[in-house]
Amino acid sequence: MTEVRPTAAASASLWEREEEVAAVARAVDSLCTDRSSSGALLVFRGEAGLGKTALLAETRRIAEARGCTVWSARGGETLRSVPFNVVRQLLQPALVSMLPEEAREYLGDWYDIAGPALGIVEPGDRQADPQGVCDGLVAAVRRLARRDWPLVLLIDDAHWADQETLHWLAGLAERLDEMSVLVVVARRSEEVSGPSARHLDTVAAAAEGPVTTLSALTPDATAGLTRATLGRHADAAFCREVWAVTAGNPYDTVELLAKVQDSELDPVEARAGELRELNRSARGGGLVARLEELGIDATRFAWAAAILGTGISVGLVAKLATLRPDEARRCAELLRTARILTAPDPATGRSTDGDLEFVHPLIATAVYNSIPDALRTAMHGIAARIVADEGHGAAAAARHLLEVHPDDDEELVGQLREAAREHLAVGAPDAARRCLERALREPPRPDSHPHVLYELAGATFLTAPARTIGHLRTALGMPGLDGDQRVDAVFRLSQALLHNDQLEEAVRTVEAEAARLRPGPARMRLQAVHFMWEGLHAGEATSPDRSQRLADLASTCTGRDNAERALLILRGFDALMHGENAEEVAELCDRALVNGRLAPGLGWTDTEWGIELLLMLANAYGFTDRLDRAETLYNEALRAYETVGWSGGHLALAHAYVGIGHRRRGRLKEAEASLREALRLAERVGRGLPLYWSATCSLVDTLLARGHVEQAWDVAERHGFAPPYPSTIVLPDPRSVRGRLLLAVGRTKDGINELEVAEKAAAARGHHNPVLVPWAADLARALSAEDPARAARLAVDVRRQAERFGTDTAIGEALRCAADLETGQRAVRLYAQAVTYLEASPCQYEYAAARVEFGIAARSVSDLERGLDLAVSCGADGLAERARAALTSGVGPA
Asked: PANTHER family from the entry (predicted)?
């Protein structure tokens, strides 16, 4: 094989990397084409020492030669527990160069959300939403890419990156088409599991072409590298032995050849036998022996540097190694000469963290592992104190505290609890969980033990409801949680049970706790929660007299506190579901407001009650034709969650209900857009959850209204919109929507069966509101040919229930159903009545449908044209096409 040398400027580790370097050059050229170019991602994978770091260095050289801005970061084996460590390395240098007001203006709404994670803003006292923080960090890159185009981001040793960084990197990889930035990632093939592995798989799937797996050097390349380093006189046998000893590993080859030079070994066959011993001294045990040769002080300095892992300043290492400043400086110079430590490249932007770093991660790992176990543990304890004394905060010290042996130290428990609070405030609940789990092993004293469990439940609530249930049950079984905190723990336990699809257990939990409390605000709060969970249950009621008990309790409420306001909302929603008079429903909800607004403590981001209660309130207005007030609440929710950066389930539900508001108004295009965004967000949270059903069901309903039947069926198939249904109520009723979908695609028998299932489910719960659970009208239409008598009875029931409920929309829709079953002048009269009611309704799609149907029945061109205009403005393409077809056919007086 012909020897091919890399360019003079390139590292020796770039031998036989021509294809990879060419791919980098193409990617950089593409990035530099213009500012509108899409982002790109390259991933290089390989075992330790195969030249990944050298490829990133070459990427930097190529990019900077073309005028790019380059930022880089590296994961560390001992730093994986430090949240946002790698993304801070990467982005912090660009932001700390700005004045605080400049950074705030530049990041806009994301400043307070992503700033704490980046270390440029002090964390607040509220638990941050991890997905919101991730989205904020993606937005930061998008904005900085516009400022610093063309921008290249380099991430080395991604397999050792912290989980929070990998979450961000996965999110960034999926949205690179929105920004002009090149991301190059280097990682080992294995060494990752759990969520980090899933995030790296997402990154790999988004890469530009297949992931490049690096291979070892061939014998010919090793020979070329050997002669380039030692001289052309190196003989073939010696070169073959270099390859055999190093297995073609570029890092090992470079280190071995450096040792050959240091020892002035003649590169001839007669001296080739000495290569193996030299190689052993370059890594592992040989490296440790070489370190010991430098003296005890240098060894202690290297150990201290390995313990710190990052921020390796001579002064900080001196404190940890208990060395005088002059001794520390001498040791640092010895370790630099021995190629164990080095000064970081200023171009990486990492030099602000310290003035030293290990030459290679392999060396850092070997030095760290060489520290005797007991001494390593003790040094971590000292490092925690030093880091805290330096003012870096409890979270920075926590990674060292995690390594300290349990010793019944209540002060350490307090430090870990404080670190957990800091982690939660920056959006790192998994890091908080590790701190609190470690605090439990200390263990805490009996008076603080239940509080640690309670805090741990808060850290696991968003990601592991089953764990949360266990933590809270244990905490509640201990003495110590009293008063409002105990009530809050019971509420959170019931929420976790709900999220874990254990709704009946959630109901029993709050019922039992409420029974043991004396009358007062705490008991009333739990009673309200009890009714709330029962009201969300989609199966049979837990107790047959629930609605009457709720009505009796709410009748005593004036809305003087939030517990009473909650009961009024719950009573209003229950009345809505049962189809009671809409005016009374709205009056109950009005009494729960303060001057027409949500009361303090009942805001969308307040945690005392949760989102479920406020959605009940908003929906009670939305389905009683008070759409102005409903849309105000839906949009308030959306703005509130976007402002605080809650990008998970809360934001998904907000988008879903904004979409429902659009759907009720008849703004079908806007509804579809909101619901598709809701479904995108819901998929990130997890399939099968109630919020996922809400988004899917409403999207299918909207697509059917638009006349996009094939799209509706595709959404249903892709997102599992079919039985079994969730245990919580979903609006609109999924069985009714599924039945209508089946009828629309021509599966009439299946559609009738589904609607009959909806009928039984509604009857079991007493849900007789024909707007919320619209199975009867669709079933009447489907049965009109084969069983007209039953269809007529259903239409009569729909009208009776609609008149009881009393909204223009409900009555107008009931009249449309009745008209669909008639012919001739009777149908015309019923359609005319429907038009009258629906014209007064805020629901423009239903009004448009009534206009078109009346125009066809009455053969009225003017009504058809009016209906066509309404259908077009609503985005109801199917209805508009029906109106056009009727006009084309030449309607006129019979």
From this structure: TESTICULAR SOLUBLE ADENYLYL CYCLASE, TRANSCRIPTIONAL ACTIVATOR DOMAIN
Q: Is 691 left (phi over 0), alpha (psi -120 to 50) or beta?
A: alpha
Angle at 842 between CA 836 and CA 847, to 5 degrees: 45
Task: Please give the Cα distance from 707 to 718 (Å, whole number).
Answer: 19
Sign of the CA dihedral running 883, 886, 892, 894:
negative
Mean pLDDT of 221-226: 91
Helix or strand holding residue 212 (H, E): strand 212-213
Q: Residues 524, 567: contact at Cβ < 8 Å?
A: yes
pLDDT in tens, 46-55: 888 888 888 9
Q: 265 — phi, psi (to 5°)? A: -75, 130
Single-letter amino acid code for the residue at 226:
T
Structural tokens at position 807: 């909204």
Query: Which amino acid is located at 219 in the chain?
Result: P
Residue 584 structure tokens: 């009374």
H/E stretch holding 341? strand 341-342
Confidence check: pLDDT of 285 > 60: no
In angstroms, the Cα distances linking 129 to 91, 126, 132, 391, 655 are: 20, 9, 5, 26, 17
Lowest average pLDDT, out of 264-278, 586-600, 726-740, goes to 264-278
Please, are residues 256 and 282 in contact by the beta-carbon 8 Å criterion? yes
Peptide bond into 444 cis (omega under 30): no
Check: CB of residue 507 under 8 Å from CB of residue 542.
yes
Name the β-bridge partners of 213.
45
Classify each residue of 335-372 as buried b or exposed e, where b means 16 or more C-beta atoms within 10 Å of its C-beta.
beebbbbeebeeebbbeebbebbbbbbbbbbbbbebbe
* 309 φψ region: left (φ > 0), alpha (ψ -120 to 50), beta (else): left
Contacts of 809 (CB under 8 A, 6+ apart): 625, 771, 837, 838, 841, 842, 843, 846
Q: What is the pLDDT of residue 3?
A: 37
Distance CA 794, CA 816 (A): 13
Task: Tell me how far apart the alpha carbons of residues 312 and 318 are, in angstroms, rounded to a whole number.
Answer: 10
Q: What confidence score (pLDDT) does residue 500 get?
A: 80
Q: Report the pLDDT averaged over residues 28-32.
A: 92
CB atoms inside a 10 Å sphere around CB 99: 9
pLDDT in tens, 549-558: 999 999 999 9
704 token code pair: 């059917």
Q: Indicate the pLDDT class of residue 825, thresholds 50, 70 and 90.
A: very high
Do you find a cis peptide bond into 346, omega within 30 degrees of 0?
Answer: no
pLDDT score, position 349: 46
Both structure tokens of 98: 């700005």
* Alpha-carbon distances of 45 from 25, 361, 433, 794, rounded to whole Å: 18, 15, 31, 65
d(CA 859, CA 891): 5
Tokens for 295, please give them: 């003296």
Distance, CA of 609 to CA of 593 (rounded, Å): 15
Inter-residue contact 791 to 807 (CB < 8 Å): no
Instruction: Give residue 269's identity as a one-letter amino acid code.
Output: E
* Cβ contacts of 231-235, under 8 Å, gap ≥ 24: 231/267, 233/267, 234/267, 234/268, 235/267, 235/268, 235/269
| Look-up of token digits 């007529």 | 792
Short-list 359, 349, 376, 447, CA closest to 89:
349
If we measure between CA atoms, which residue out of 630, 607, 458, 640 comes closest to residue 525? 607
Q: Which two tokens stand for residue 817?
A: 């159903």
* Under 8 Å between Cβ of 490 and 508: no
Q: Which two tokens stand for residue 138?
A: 């993606």
DSSP, res 269: G
Crossing angle between the packed helical segments 562-577 and 521-536, to the nearest 10 degrees: 20
Query: Chain centroid to CA 686: how far?
Result: 10
pLDDT for res 750: 97
In sequence order, what DSSP letters do the residues of 94-159 get, joined into one string?
HHHTS-HHHHHHHHGGGHHHHHHHHTSS---SSPPPHHHHHHHHHHHHHHHHHHS-SEEEEEE-GG
Residue type, 744: A
Per the CB < 8 A criterion, the answer to whether 379 and 320 are in contact is: yes
